[in-house]
Design a protein that fits this description.
single chain, 243 residues, mainly alpha, 3% strand
Length: 243
């Protein structure tokens, strides 16, 4: 296997995956996969160390197969008739006795064709199952993406609503504060105007009183100079006639 891998590497043929070796002995798989050496395994041959290095380097892969399905037994063990025929059919080898004079294949070839047909149908079913799984994966990914997008939209809407609500509250508070300030300012202005009007009215009243007093004093002085006696000041009565 290592020689074939090195030859393929020199030919610049890339391997898609590590070659698989089917083993029907679980103990051999465990020894090859486990790097820890135990007391019972210190007298083993060097081949196991070589295989272990290849397994750890992922150059080969060991898998378990039941003994009844081990195709390599046809080359290493004396099998009975039924297991021998079974393994031979799996290898795709046709018996010479089944070939006729015309070169057509007999019953064994028909069984092989049926087996190949079954294998092809199984391969088609496996491909269809793989396609179905891929479509399911795509649907799941699409559903997850749509769900995430809807969640993002909901979060954005909630954030926008919260921001709008906070902005409205801030505007209402600012408006209320401005209205209160305007009312207070208007009240101050009104009070100041009232005070000014009262002050002006008081000034006018004082001016009228002073002017009246000055006129009376002037008339009194004139009469005193002329030598006329003082006449008592009579109030003028205004008569209103109703026609």
């Amino acid at each position: 296997m290592s020689w074939l891998s090195s030859m393929l590497g020199e030919l610049k043929i890339k391997k898609k995956r590590s070659p698989v070796i089917w083993v029907d002995n679980m103990s051999a798989i465990t020894l090859a996969s486990n790097p820890v050496l135990h007391a019972r395994t210190k007298h083993i041959e060097l081949d196991i160390h070589f295989v272990r290095d290849k397994v750890l380097g992922k150059e080969i892969e060991l898998r378990h197969v039941p003994t009844a399905d081990q195709v390599a037994d046809i080359f290493t063990k004396p099998l009975s008739h039924q297991p021998f025929v079974k393994m031979r059919e799996r290898l795709g080898v046709v018996s010479l006795a089944s070939l006729g004079l015309r070169g057509c294949v007999g019953r064994d070839s028909q069984a092989d064709q049926a087996a190949m047909h079954d294998l092809k149908s199984l391969d088609r079913q496996a491909d269809q199952a793989a396609m179905h799984l891929k479509s399911l994966d795509r649907r799941v990914d699409q559903a997850a993406a749509m769900h995430l997008k809807s969640l993002d939209r909901q979060v954005d809407q909630a954030v926008d609503q919260a921001a709008a609500c906070q902005a409205d509250q801030a505007v209402d508070q600012a408006d209320a504060c401005q209205v209160d300030q305007a009312v207070a300012c208007n009240t101050k202005i009104t009070n100041h105007v009232d005070q000014c009007m009262a002050t002006k009215q008081d000034a006018r009243d004082k001016q009228v009183i002073n002017s009246t007093r000055a006129k009376v004093i002037d008339k009194t002085k004139e009469r005193t100079k002329a030598g006329t006696p003082k006449e008592p000041i009579r109030r003028a009565h205004t008569s209103y006639s109703c026609e």
